[in-house]
Structures are given as structure tokens and as C-alpha cells.
Amino acid sequence: MTDSLNNFLSFVSTIRVQDIIDILIVAVAIYKIYILIKETRAEQLMKGILAIFFFSILSDILNLYTISWILKKAWTAGFVLIIVVFQPELRRMLEYIGTSNIFKKSFVDLQYEVAKHNSTEVTRAVASLSRQKIGALIVFERRTGLNEVIETGTLLNAVISSELLINIFIPNTPLHDGAVIIRESTIKAASCFLPMSENQSISKELGTRHRAALGISEKSDSLSVVVSEETGTISIAEKGELQRYIDVETLEDILMNFYSVNNEESVNDYEE
Q1: Burial of 98 (0-12, 13-18, 19+ CB in 10 A)
Q2: Average pLDDT by stretches of 10, the chain with 272 residues
Q3: Cys-Cys link to 144, which of 28, 76, 211, 220 (CB 3.0-4.6 A)?
Q4: Cα separation of 229 and 57, whole Å?
């Protein structure tokens, strides 16, 4: 045990600052390349390359000379094939690296962009639904998980967009009845059933959506946005309380604050 610890400490002492910088640069480069090729044809190609690389090493270890020879020849032809077949993707990747400011953006800047995008898209959808007097109920998950609620609806796992949110709540469509659940930057599910509030002091003029929004806010730390079908009024339900007659500008500020606070909590949790 002591020898192992001494060997480990000896190894750590040989690591230079340059080595750490070198590893970080390679890690960032790999991550950026993965983001660029994610969900494209190039992603499948990379999986194939990694598979060949794995089997090439395995064949060397097991002394499978024929397979090893074939795989080494495949490497030579493979790189030429990559350049020919994926020329558009490679060109687009190099153009993106040359023209973008991905290396200039800080983590805080990226967080702000995500918060701004999410709050703007949701606000745009809610404003449109409000003008058309189309009822809507959107629930934003915080620390308290809403998996039980998500399971009652239709799973979507979609990127937040105003067009999708508007289409979900259009009357007489399959998903319009129920709540949309949003987790971070993802629309997790639609047409979800929420628990109704048991508060007897709620105004009789409030409908099912408002009572459901209050109900989920009483049982979790979520934030709910409600659009009244009768009046188009926008309301916010949080901590068992309902704020009515929210204007569009105030709604966007509330959502921006919601995402900013959530991002700060995520960073603090990671640091802890």
C-alpha cells in the first residue's frame, strides 16, 4: 500500500503545468468537435472510426495478425474516404472554427445565451397564446423532480421553441389538454395531469388550469405559467400563490431570473 502511494506521488510530482494545459486544450478541442458533429452523418462516422481503432488494438493484443493487417490497411484508405465523402461537413466545421467566437465566450456568457433563448421563446409563445385567448399551462421544474407528472403525459424531449409550444396548445389537437413540463432547456412532456389545489379560499372564477398550477406549486418548488382561455390573462403560480395579470415584459423578466438562478445553483452544486 505504501509503495503504491509513493509511486502515485512520484508520478504526480512529474506532471508539469504544460502537461495540464496540454490535456485541457485537447479535451476542449474534442468537446467542441463533438458538439459540431453531433446528430450529423459525421457522428456515425466517428463511431465507426472508434470501433475500428478499438478492434485494431484488440487484434494486436491477441496477436490476430491477419485482422490486424486488414485494419491497418483500412486506416490508410479510411482517411482518404473521410475527406472525399465528408468534404461538406469538414468545410463547414473549418468555417465555423474560423468565423465563430467559441474561444472568446466565457461560461457565464453561454449561460446567459441559454437563459435568454429559453425565456424569449417561452414568452413569445405565451404572448401569442394570450392574444388568441388559447388556454395554456407550462410548468418549469426546479429541484423537486416531476417525473411522476411527466409519466402521465406524452414524452417529447424537445428543444424549447415558441412554434412548438404554440402548436401544442392549439385547441382540438392531441396534446392541447394538460400541462407542458419543462426541465432546464428541454420540453420533457406535454398533456400531463397535475394535482389540483385543495385550497378552499381560491376564487371561484379560476378554472381548472389555475387550480392545477397552484396544486403543483403546493407540492413542489416549480414555477407555472398559465394563460386563461376566457380572458387571455397571463398568471404565475409559485409556492402556493398565484400572481395574475402578468404582462409580457414582466413574464420575460421572471423567466430570465428563473433560468439565471437555476444556473447559479447548478454551478454551486458542481463546486460543492
Answers
A1: exposed
A2: 66 74 82 66 68 78 79 69 65 62 55 89 97 96 93 95 96 93 94 89 84 94 95 94 94 92 49 39
A3: 220
A4: 63
